[in-house]
Design brief:
heterodimer; A: MetI-like fold; 13 helices; B: Rossmann fold; six-stranded mixed beta sheet; four-stranded antiparallel beta sheet; 12 strands; binds adenosine-5'-triphosphate; binds magnesium ion; nucleotide-binding (chain B); ABC-type polar-amino-acid transporter (chain B); AAA+_ATPase (chain B); ATPase-coupled polar amino acid-transporter activity (chain B); transport (chain B)
């Protein structure tokens, strides 16, 4: 439908006093190239997709259960926990990432080496192993003892939430450190020179000049990291944290609806990742200020513009 | 000797590792003077300019601005390095304009001009904004305050950069080939702003290949080659009647 109206408006040459300034021209009429390959591949893909949908509709799945359990209170609380653990782990990862990136780039060889060591260890071992290490830490340390400041039994401190937070957050910090570092290094040296020449200190230069520009490089991979985090958080079901996957499969095993509940979990994961992808899009736009002459319109703005265009063609008719 | 020189260099040396770039620079820049620095590529002009506001550290000699050693302080016969914050404080009074503008791309023109007064001097935004508007007016960009640097031509960007440096009310301005990255038709606007500034009595050190500007506005000109001052004097004399072969060879290429 959209197509028809578009073509219609393009074919009618703009008339009336408003268009008098433009020289009229005759649009080229040519027979477009036929893309047979595109047609064939479209048909093949459509058939395969149809077959897949059919197969699942014939499987021994009770789809009604998927619908019933989608808003089950314990599934929803698992969903909430997934968001909580993902957001807090990401926040911890971001703070650690900035800290270790700045350390890595510092002129002090000790801090730089410590940062390197951290990144080497936490990137070099599987996050699942790291989670299990935190989970079982009480096997080797009965107390967490920070001298006179703090002392407590390890099992009391390392609740499932803390295990999940430390496991995911420290791992994320190592990845974020590399992302932040590459962002900082992407900023032209002339920028910090200009800032120093104005009398700004190193800290002010980092905060006001370098980091805001580094954000443009940092945000896209950070968005990917976060979307990964939403999914990786399913691993913490192994350390007793009641997140989405654990809540769903608990119901699945007791109700004998394992596949159904895995679908329920998948639907929620897809929902979460979709929502945050949209958020990422707008965040990227915000930090693109100044790097593009004009920002491209958001999908919403484009929709509005299209609607206006329809209105105008209607008036023309 | 009348007034205290604004800049005084005595036997300034600078090396990058084994590369000996500045090999003993001696010169004096008087207050309110327009001091031009010319010389072939790689002769160390930019390096010397960057030493004046301590973007580079000198290896030997003495360099002072307005009677203060750059980057060091002297107690008795010992030199102490200045702290980061003290170096930053020294730089407040020295404006610098770069060949490639180096405006902050994430800020509008007016925000670029306001940044240092607000962050460094702790000025209120309202006061800083008022001054920024005046300065942008002065460089002929009163209507471009809301533009981001990418939305400005090269010549306009360089004029914003000059306004940004002036916002700190410096007593000395350093220009490192401010028009070399510009299309020929944009050079004039920037030179006009600099001429204005010179007339207002600003002390300026200008590295440039614009011999016309040097001849017309300059009070003093130094020809540098291989990290030393080869020849100096009034621009009209040095440019019109060079004494050294190296100066003659260089000028025959650029004039
Ligand atoms: N950070 C650095 N490390 C090593 N060598 C450097 C560095 N900066 C400059 N140099 C060298 O110092 C020499 C002088 O450089 P400088 O930029 O001062 O020259 P210039 O006179 O400004 O030349 P131009 O007219 O091309 O700008 C050059 O040979 C350059 O390669
Ligand atoms: Mg140079």
């Amino acid at each position: 439908m959209t197509d028809k109206i578009d073509k219609g408006s393009a074919a009618t040459p703009p008339a009336g006093p408003g268009a008098s300034g433009a020289t009229p021209y005759e649009a080229i009429k040519a027979i477009p190239v036929r893309h047979y390959g595109r047609w064939i591949s479209a048909v093949v893909v459509a058939v395969l997709l149809g077959w897949l949908v059919y197969a699942f509709s014939q499987g021994k799945i009770i789809w009604a259960t998927v619908g019933d359990k989608l808003f089950d209170p314990s599934v929803l609380s698992g969903l909430g926990n997934t968001v909580i653990i993902s957001v807090s782990s990401m926040a911890l990862g971001l703070v650690l990432g900035i800290l270790f990136a700045v350390m890595r780039l510092s002129k002090n060889p000790v801090t730089s080496f410590v940062s390197w060591l951290y990144i080497w260890f936490f990137r070099g071992t599987p996050v699942y192993v790291q989670l299990l290490v935190w989970f079982n830490l009480s096997l080797i340390f009965q107390y967490i003892n920070l001298g006179p400041i703090y002392k407590n039994e390890t099992v009391d401190v390392l609740t499932p939430f803390m295990v999940a937070l430390l496991g995911l957050g420290l791992n994320e910090g190592a990845y974020m450190a590399e992302i932040v570092r590459s962002g900082i290094q992407s900023v032209d040296e002339g920028q910090s020179e200009a800032s120093h020449a104005l009398g700004m200190t190193g800290m002010q230069t980092m905060r006001r000049v370098v980091l805001p520009q580094a954000m443009r490089v940092i945000i896209p991979p950070t968005g990917n990291e976060f979307i990964n985090m939403l999914k990786t958080s399913s691993l913490v079901s192994a350390v007793q944290y009641p997140e989405l996957l654990r809540a769903s499969s608990n119901i699945g095993t007791t109700a004998g609806a394992i596949m159904e509940m895995l679908f329920v979990a998948s639907i929620w994961y897809l929902t979460l990742t979709s929502i945050f992808s949209v958020g990422q899009y707008y965040l990227e736009r915000r930090y693109a200020r100044g790097s593009l002459r004009t920002l491209p319109p958001t999908p919403f703005e484009r929709l509005k513009a299209n609607l206006n265009m329809f209105r105008r063609t209607e008036v023309a008719k | 000797m009348t007034a205290q020189p604004m800049v005084k260099a005595e036997g300034v040396h600078k090396s990058y590792g084994a590369a000996h770039i500045l090999r003993g620079i001696d010169l004096e820049v008087a207050p309110r003077e327009v001091f031009c620095l010319v010389g072939p590529s790689g002769s160390g002009k930019s390096t010397f300019l960057r030493c004046i506001n301590h973007l580079e550290r000198i290896n030997a000699g003495r360099l002072s601005v307005d009677g203060q050693l750059v980057g060091y302080k002297q107690k008795g016969d010992k030199l102490y390095e200045l702290k980061d914050s003290e170096v930053a404080a020294q730089r407040r009074d020295i404006g610098m304009v770069f060949q490639r503008f180096n405006l902050f791309p994430h800020m509008t023109a007016i925000e670029n001009v306001m940044e240092a007064p607000v962050m460094v001097k702790g000025e209120s935004k309202a006061v800083a904004r008022e001054r920024a508007i005046k300065l942008l007016d002065r460089v002929g960009l009163g209507d471009k305050g809301g533009n981001y640097p990418t939305q400005l031509s090269g010549g306009q960007q360089q004029r914003v950069a000059i306004a940004r440096a002036l916002a700190m009310e410096p007593k000395l301005m350093l220009f490192d080939e401010p028009t070399s990255a510009l299309d020929p038709e944009l050079v004039g606007d920037v030179l006009d702003v600099m001429r204005d500034l010179a007339e207002s009595g600003m002390t300026m050190i200008v590295v440039t290949h614009e011999m016309g500007f040097a001849r017309e506005v300059g009070d003093n000109l130094v020809f540098m080659d291989g990290g030393v001052v080869v020849e100096s004097g009034h621009p009209r004399e040095v440019l019109g009647n060079p004494q050294h072969d190296r100066t003659k060879a260089f000028l025959s290429k650029v004039l």
